[in-house]
Amino acid sequence: MKSFKASNRNQSFLLPPSIQDWLPQEHLARFIVETVEQLDLSKIESQYNGKSKDAYAPQVMLSLLFYGYATGVFSSRKIERATYDSVAFRYISANTHPDHDTIANFRKRFLNELTDLFVQILSIAQEIGILKVGKVSLDGTKVKASASKHKALSYAHATKL
Fold first, then answer.
1. Which residues have a Cβ under 8 Å from the Cβ of 107 and sit 6 or more positions away?
2. What is the rounded CA–CA span in Å between residue 35 and residue 124?
3. Which H or E element spans position 122?
4. Residue 145 pLDDT grade (very low, low, confident, very high; cuts 50, 70, 90)
């Protein structure tokens, strides 16, 4: 007779689960949250008018964007979905779920500030020896290109021109 580990999806928790228990200590999401909490976000915070209690903290939004970019999730819709599906994104968002419009508007509104903050996060990662954060980019510029034989230049031909 084969024996398998029991799995009961209807099991109730005796105590509420802690979001701190969801990720290992050395997880990239923890590093990003801890680093962003130490950054000076006053340029972003000063642009909030203070009338709304429903705004997401800039630390949460910045952490979501940076973690998304570092792990290859660039779309605001996919980041929103990940706050439901991914333990790391849930941890970063503190189990809240900013909608894709909120994420996209934050990115667009604070693009200049985000560029500087992303560089700071990457510098800190380099200083403490995190070798691989991922590929992070903010520029979504589309470049029109032609790969036809007639339009392409060899290095030798380009130097001659």
1. 65, 76, 114
2. 8
3. helix 111-128
4. low
